[in-house]
Amino acid sequence: MAQAREEAHRTRAIEAARRTMAVGEQVIENGRVICADCGAPIPAGRLRARPDATRCVDCQAALEARP
Predict the structure, then answer these.
(1) What distances in angstroms separate CA 25 from CA 35, 40, 52, 61, one per listed residue?
(2) 60 within 8 A of 53, measured Cβ to Cβ
(3) Over the stretch 4-63, which tens digit does the pLDDT of each residue have?
């Protein structure tokens, strides 16, 4: 019984980690990719255009505008 409880707890912990985890450089929370700079969700259109995006359009533009 205790072993089954421990296994269930471990499974829940793994699932929680999968819901909030780094995939390469992307941070995913509750199924949404989060901007590495401002923490806002990256819009689906940006992710369709750039599936590997780690920043929203505004933060990426600000990064590229830096000298």
Answers:
(1) 10, 15, 8, 18
(2) yes
(3) 787 776 766 666 555 445 456 677 778 889 999 999 999 999 999 998 899 999 999 999
What pLDDT is attached to residue 39?
93
Residue 25's contacts (CB-CB under 8 Å, 6 or more residues apart) are: 36, 52, 54
pTM across the whole model: 0.59
Are 66 and 59 in contact, with CB atoms under 8 Å apart? Answer: no
Number of domains in the chain: 1
Distance CA 3, CA 56 (A): 44
Is residue 30 within 8 A of residue 16, CB to CB? The reply is no
Expressed as residue numbers, the domain containing 17 is 2-65
Single out the residue of 44, 34, 37 nearest to residue 58, CA to CA: 37
